[in-house]
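Please check what follows.
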Amino acid sequence: MSRECSVLAEQLNRNCQCISLDRVALVRALAGGESGADLAALIDAGRPNLFADSAVFVGAACLQRMADIIAAIERVVALPAWQERVLAWAPSAARFVPKASGVFHGYDFHLSPAGPQLIEINTNAGGGLLNAALAQAQKACCEEVSAVLPGVHPAATVEQEYVDMFLEEWRTERGDVPLQRIAIVDERPSEQFLYPEFLLFQKLFERHGIAAVICDPGELRFAEGALRHGDDRIDLVYNRLTDFGLDAPENAALREAYLAGAVVVTPHPRAHAVYADKRNLSLLTDAVVLTELGVDAATREVLLTGIPRTERVRREEADALWARRKQLFFKPAAGYGSKAAYRGDKLTKRAFEEILGGGYVSQALVPPSERVVGVAGERIGLKLDLRNFVYRGRVQLVIARLYQGQTTNFRTAGGGFAPVLTVPHIEGVS
């Protein structure tokens, strides 16, 4: 892979500390013609490090490589043999086959010297709409940023893509029947860290003539052949729950309506099962398994060089795992948001025993790359990862997250979501 993927971008990420975020423009972008100041105040009050002041630079070849890895995974997931294999460890609701594909698949990468490495896949990835607003609030703060600022995807275009995506999910299931009401569903939604994004989606849907409610799953009921919130019939659920199989008692009405085909749910249990269960990564990085599944040689090469080796944790291999723990990262199979994930070199014996209890994978450690930013007059190095928002195999938006610590946390001064600026290929630089 060409070193152009990283050299120029690395130099800019190390040396350009200027502030590209226009906070006034951000309030306007959040407003969408409504109370943007209130939303900005909500973010400032409880989420002061949601948005980074600086952009992240990424080489064009690097972006293409990530797209190639995503396309390779899409080819594998489409195989009947793959679906049969992963559904063996999936929750029962995943065996229901909807027509909808699932919105906001998130492919998360670290940038290594050898190029992008896929760390994990999520099927209810957050931040897509927040980052559409963030992209709209960037300013050319120096010559280097000015040269690549057009590389930020226009926010209005992204927002329309998101609306079209939900409409496509609906039409795939219901044809020409009008989509009238959406429920944005999560546990205690107003307490969720990304609650401001729920409000943005509610406004976005309403601006396009679709009624929208934000609610807890316990507020829903399945009655008279329909999912209902109060007296209102819900046509489509934008599912932000982390109970990926809808197995919890409080999700019973939603689960029943979904399995009865009475409501469109996106993303849905099957999408998580075939894409996002962390155990799937152990198959995607096993050359023998990929061959058995009928994956072609070119696709195998992309996967084996683009995803860190991942294995299911087995108690009988405890001694070997402990011995090489410093080269590993441990994640729960149904994990999300870095919860209960452990970097091996920080691992205690007590946490290791929990890991051996079952349901974990170990992944070869790929340290994140770095973005140097200016905070309070000092240069501070922040770790970064890249998230690709994907729908039906097509990348809609690429964003970065800046942080300090073991995993992304939105608690780091100068950190948070950051727009990605594309550094174009320059002849003679390799």
Summary: The mean pLDDT is 91. The CA atoms of residues 31 and 37 lie 7 Å apart. The two ends are 10 Å apart (CA to CA).
